[in-house]
Amino acid sequence: MRGSISLQLNSTLSFTILNECVYFSGSCLILSNLLGNTQDKLIPSSSNGIVLMDARNLYETRIGKFYTPNVETLDPEIRQYSDLPSWIDNNSEKLRGNNILMYCTGGIRCEMASAYIRSKGAGFENVFQLYGGIQRYLEQFPDGGFFKGKNFVFDHRVSVGSSDSRILGTCLLCNSPFDDYSSRSRCTYCRMLVLVCDNCREKDSSYVCELCRKNSLCIQPTSATEFDNSVEISEVAELEAVSTSDRIAPPALVSGPRTLRKLRILCLHGFRQNASGFKGRTASLAKKLKSIAELVFVDAPHELPFIYQIRQNCDSASELENNHPPSESCNKKFSWLVAPDHKGENDSDWKIADSPFDPLQYQKQTEGFDKSIAYLKALYSKAGPFDGILGFSQGAAMAALVCLHQQKLKGQMEFRFAILCSGFAVNMNNCQQGSINVPSLHIFGSDKGKDRQIENEASKYLASLFENGCSVVIEHDFGHIIPARPPYIDQIKDFLKRFL
Which is one Pfam family of this protein (predicted)? Predict the structure, then answer.
């Protein structure tokens, strides 16, 4: 039944929402039907006014936003999320003393922005957020409710809408109704996404966004890279992964001068390793790259059983005693590719190896790609985008397969470059030399090195499959590692700086 519900939240805040039921927890609006799906009015019942604040970037708001009767909606019109603190500082009088109802795509940006607003002190206490953001709201109201247009999302879908098919956006050049960002058209100057319809895109490839026009910015155009995500920030759901920033999360909301965005690199460990161990082994590399790159480490999807080798002809009691598996618990080990006879065992019991260790066993691990690529696509959708992919040993073989299938993966998982360390080719027999057109850096042991895991010729062959004009090769004498000392670290940095 329609009617008004008056909610007394605390001693400082109460207001009435007609025909809607709203639940609060502390100072956070946690559900449910804020703004509702009717045209009833949202009426303040206290001396405090109500403002609705969109915490998203301008290109997101141009294709969809909330329209509510009798409630002022504030659109900061920012290029990227890190610009929001400056806007809040410059517009604090519009917020002071009001009940600030805030929304974004999934709620993560609101979490940080609301904390920043409250930190301003008296007059900024009443900040509330739409739990689950627009995504949860559209689940509650499939017809769109008070949300008009489409919701921009940071994955291959680009945007999702309600059952209401009305188009809110317009073409930057001809002003015709248009709301499709799938072409990834960007401003020539600031690289922000812009809406350009198919007809206008055929006539012109140079665009100036409305913010650059408004501010009459005289800046040099940046290099046009199709998948340049320097102005985007995704609403990331945390995964079981570790990074050089200790978590996969959006950049911190801070005010002050803008700094160069670091490259985000997805790192794939080797066979019978895990994300935590690989992070430890590359700590020196991560430290020397910390000014330009963030390394994100993930466990592979194939869990491996624990195995041990029985040593024959033990001569002493100590050797005999050590001829058993460790008694303490061990960290799980994973792989990207497995042998054809792999049974998917993942219990904690140690097993005796069927045969002596084979230094060329990596050539026999040819199965499991479908499971690994599905896992990486899901990871990319939730935690991406990533600028590059780095693989070590079997992880490099997996990364090479990702590059090989780049056309099939377009729109689902894309990288601007690949770094392949001690790599080798798997399931690439039909691949022609120089046919993989992905900028690549190949790092492996030289002929005189001590890499007893991956043959030098195997890594050289993998490098030959990548287009020669966009690949770099670094050979070193340090075995099965990624060197982090000069001159190799300088060569690695030189390669990465191309993509900043």
Answer: Rhodanese_C
- Tell me the two tokens of residue 375: 């896992």
For residues 247 and 71, is the Cβ–Cβ distance under 8 A?
A: no
The residue written with tokens 């929304």 in the block is 103
Stated as kind and residue range, the H or E segment containing 441 is strand 440-445
How far, in whole angstroms, is CA 352 from its chain's centroid?
40
AA identity, residue 359: P
Q: Which domains does the chain have, with CATH numbers?
A: 5-27+47-161 (3.40.250.10), 169-212 (no CATH), 263-302+367-498 (3.40.50.1820)
Dihedral sign computed on CA atoms, order 284, 286, 291, 292: positive
Q: Can you give the pLDDT at residue 256?
A: 47
Three-state DSSP at 268 gives: strand
What token pair was written down for 155? 């994955």
Record the tokens describing residue 387, joined without a space: 């600028």
CA-to-CA distance for 187 and 58, rounded, in angstroms?
Answer: 13
Name the nearest CA neighbour of 35 among 13, 53, 20, 50. 20
Please give the pLDDT value at position 236. 36
Catalytic residue ranges: 104
25: number of Cβ within 10 Å: 9
Q: What is the DSSP letter of 486?
A: T
Alpha helix segments (H runs only) across 290-415: 317-321, 369-383, 394-404
pLDDT grade for 292, boundaries at 50, 70 and 90: very high
Q: At what angle do helices 394-404 and 369-383 cross, to 10 degrees?
A: 80
Angle between helices 394-404 and 456-464 (to 10 degrees): 10
CA 358 from centroid of its chain's CA atoms: 37
Residues 6+ apart with CB under 8 A from 189: 208, 209, 212, 217, 219, 220, 221, 222
Phi first, then psi, for residue 364 (nearest 5°) are -95, -10
Q: What is the DSSP letter of 270?
A: -
The answer, yes or no, to whether residue 170 has pLDDT greater than 90, is: yes
Q: Which residue would you say has higher pLDDT here, 462 or 233?
A: 462
For 115, the 3-state DSSP assignment is helix
Q: How far apart are CA 286 and CA 280, in angstroms?
A: 10
pLDDT for 71 equals: 80
Q: In angstroms, what CA-CA distances link 207 with 201, 215, 447?
A: 9, 15, 51
Tokens encoding 48: 């405090």
Tally Cβ neighbours within 10 Å of residue 386. Answer: 21
SS3 at position 338: strand
Q: Are 171 and 198 in contact (CB under 8 A)?
A: no
Q: State mean pLDDT over 179-203.
A: 87
What pLDDT does 369 receive? 94
pLDDT tens per residue, range 298-343: 999 998 876 655 555 555 545 445 555 555 556 788 999 988 876 6
Digit-coded pLDDT (tens) for 94-125:
999 999 999 998 877 888 888 889 988 899 98
